[in-house]
């Protein structure tokens, strides 16, 4: 089982993608512990679909970022990185601009060659479940 990297801070995680998609979407990592990562995103106009609700791609971006960062924080010693091999999302509800959404990623499998993470996305104010997400990642080791 992979163990949480004790040297990785929330500040480092939030800085990783500051100039990339997670930063542009305003994704913030709030907490990290063994087998779990919590993130949030304030819903703004650029997160919206034309129908006035949170775009499904914004939800996937939040969940994929949370599970990806959680994977990075739990990579086995000697690894180089990881790559996503499968992701799936189920949607149950949505929110409008001005809401804040939370994402809690939980490890389901922390193996030597793969990791599987589940993430639940909720409306921060009501706690209402918006989506469930599952991501499978392949752990990459240096060649040679």
One letter per element, helices H and strands E, the order comes to: HHEEHEEEE
Count the DSSP helices. Answer: 3
- Number of domain modules: 1
CATH architecture: Roll
CATH third-tier fold name? Thiol Ester Dehydrase, Chain A
Strand content: 35-45%
Structural class designation: alpha+beta
CATH class: Alpha Beta
User: Which stretches are low in confidence, meaning pLDDT under 50 for 5 or more residues running?
Assistant: none
The counted number of beta strands is 6
The gyration radius over C-alpha positions equals: 15 Å
Mean pLDDT: 97
Note the main sheet.
6 strands, antiparallel
- What is the CA-CA span between the terminal residues? 23 Å
Helix content: 10-25%
What do these coordinates show?
With 144 residues, this protein is α+β, with helices and mostly antiparallel strands. It has a single domain (10-140), classed as Roll (Thiol Ester Dehydrase, Chain A). It is 21% helix and 40% strand. It contains three helices and six strands, in the order ααββαββββ. Strands 1-2-4-5-6-3 form a six-stranded antiparallel sheet. It is globular, with a radius of gyration of 15 Å. The mean pLDDT is 97.
């Amino acid at each position: 089982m992979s163990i949480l990297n004790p040297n990785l801070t929330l500040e480092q995680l939030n800085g990783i993608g500051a100039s990339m998609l997670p930063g542009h979407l305003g994704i913030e990592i709030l907490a990290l512990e063994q087998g779990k990562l919590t993130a949030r995103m304030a819903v703004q106009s650029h997160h919206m679909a034309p129908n006035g609700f949170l775009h499904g791609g914004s939800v996937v971006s939040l969940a994929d970022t949370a599970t990806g960062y959680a994977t990075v924080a739990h990579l086995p010693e000697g690894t180089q990185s990881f790559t996503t091999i499968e992701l799936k999302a189920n949607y149950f509800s949505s929110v409008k601009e001005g809401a804040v959404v939370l994402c809690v990623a939980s490890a389901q499998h922390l193996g030597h060659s793969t990791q599987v993470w589940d993430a639940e996305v909720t409306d921060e104010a009501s706690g209402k479940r918006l989506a469930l997400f599952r991501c499978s990642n392949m752990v990459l080791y240096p060649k040679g």
